[in-house]
């Protein structure tokens, strides 16, 4: 049955899971001081790049002996750079419970062709058995499954006395979730997620244990130039001081600085986490009362506060074929976009048909609350009429 069309719309309708909503109040004026037309190696440009590193370190509370760098090709480039650099020294456990984790499995098994890779998989909505992870091996995992809305609940499952390295794709987690840095040896993310920055640049954080691996192990395969972090068996330290491997966009750098300064203005990491968790609390409380949909994450403690994924459980939907479910979900998304209510809330192409609503820190909780009645209305509009 169709419900009455709501009268209030979200003030900002950007709910994409990447690139994500810009910070509240953002405009192109935020980029007016960008050092465009300048070499990224010029002294002022390098200082601005270093500002991104320093602000990121400060807000996230990185240990003083952890290195941080900007690297090419977004989070994907950062993860692959490290898979190519450090894997092969030990066996590796690959954790996958959504499409990006599956992608790293493909890299390791089909591209690097490692024979001693163990795959620990789970279906969308679930986590693998974390207690079965072997920390004598290297371990590759996503902290937050961007396409499933399932996150690891904490870092308690990671051993402090591990012999292998932990390699964590944290792109939709960092700045919205509490990261236990002492449990993470290699951590990656991209600007276009929780702080709403622009795309194409990746971030990389290395623990001293990761640096030791880089300087003591040489992989048997060729290393592309944009991946090379060592020279003559030593870490290229200038990369971690703002001397990037390749050319960065100074417009994007300026935008990253703007986002980081906004993060400080809302209380730093605690403020960012609080904003994201408030978005999850609002959506989860609503979803728990619905009969036609629910959060894809099966356990409350694994619910993501950024990529909040909903599966449609209504009888009319579950009786459809897989292709018809995809078409119905697309109609749902298109209807809300046509109404000027929500942009880009369709589930990821490899995920179960449904909805994905970004709840990162740049999204206001009031906009999440305003969206929810529209989801109920759209459900009534899209389902087949009796």
Concise structural overview:
The chain is an alpha/beta fold. It has 9 helices and 14 strands.
Lateral arrangement of strands in the main beta sheet: 1-9-8-7-4-2-3
Oligomer: single chain
The CATH homologous superfamily of the largest domain is named Type I PLP-dependent aspartate aminotransferase-like (Major domain)
What is the average of the pLDDT values? 97
Calculate Rg over CA atoms: 21 Å
Q: Secondary-structure element sequence?
A: HEHEHEEEEEEEHEEHHEEHHEH
CATH class of the largest domain, anyone?
Alpha Beta
Indicate the overall shape: globular
Give helix % range: 25-40%
Task: Output the number of helix runs.
Answer: 9
State the domain count. 2
Q: Could you describe the largest sheet, including whether it forms a barrel?
A: 7 strands, mixed
- List segments where confidence is low: pLDDT < 50 over at least 5 consecutive residues: none
User: Could you say what the CATH topology of the largest domain is called?
Assistant: Aspartate Aminotransferase, domain 2
């Amino acid at each position: 049955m169709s419900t009455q069309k709501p009268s209030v719309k979200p003030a900002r309708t950007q709910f994409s899971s990447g690139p994500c909503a810009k910070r509240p109040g953002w405009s192109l004026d935020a980029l007016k001081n960008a050092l465009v037309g300048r070499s990224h190696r010029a002294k002022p440009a390098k200082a601005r790049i270093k500002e991104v590193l320093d602000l990121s370190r400060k807000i996230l509370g990185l240990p003083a002996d952890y290195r941080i760098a900007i690297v090419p090709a977004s989070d994907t480039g950062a993860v692959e750079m490290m898979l190519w650099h450090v894997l092969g020294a030990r066996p590796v456990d690959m954790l996958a419970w959504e499409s990006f984790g599956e992608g790293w499995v493909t890299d390791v098994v089909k591209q690097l062709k490692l024979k001693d890779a163990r795959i620990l998989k789970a279906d969308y909505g679930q986590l693998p058995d974390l207690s079965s992870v072997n920390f004598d091996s290297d371990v590759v995992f996503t902290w937050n499954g961007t396409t499933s809305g399932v996150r690891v609940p904490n870092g308690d499952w990671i051993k402090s006395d591990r012999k292998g390295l932990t390699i964590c794709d944290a792109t939709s987690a960092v700045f919205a979730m509490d990261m236990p840095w002492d449990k993470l040896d290699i951590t990656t993310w991209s600007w276009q997620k929780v702080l709403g920055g622009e795309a194409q640049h990746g971030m990389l954080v290395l623990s001293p244990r990761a640096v030791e691996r880089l300087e003591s192990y040489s992989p048997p395969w060729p290393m592309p130039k944009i991946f090379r972090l060592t020279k003559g068996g030593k870490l290229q330290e200038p990369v971690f001081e703002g001397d990037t491997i390749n050319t960065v966009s100074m417009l994007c750098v300026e935008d990253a600085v703007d986002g980081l300064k906004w993060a400080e203005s809302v209380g730093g990491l605690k403020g960012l986490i609080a904003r994201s968790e408030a978005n999850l609390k609002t959506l989860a409380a609503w979803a728990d009362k619905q009969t036609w949909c629910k959060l894809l994450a099966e356990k409350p403690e694994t619910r993501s506060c950024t990529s909040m994924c909903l599966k449609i459980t209504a009888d009319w939907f579950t009786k459809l074929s897989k292709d018809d479910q995809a078409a119905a979900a697309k109609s749902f998304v298109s209807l809300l976009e046509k109404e000027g209510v929500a942009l880009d809330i369709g589930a990821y192409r490899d995920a179960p048909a449904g909805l994905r609503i970004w709840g990162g820190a740049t999204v206001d909780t009031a906009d999440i609350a305003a969206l929810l009645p529209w989801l109920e209305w759209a459900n009534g509009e899209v389902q087949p009429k009796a």
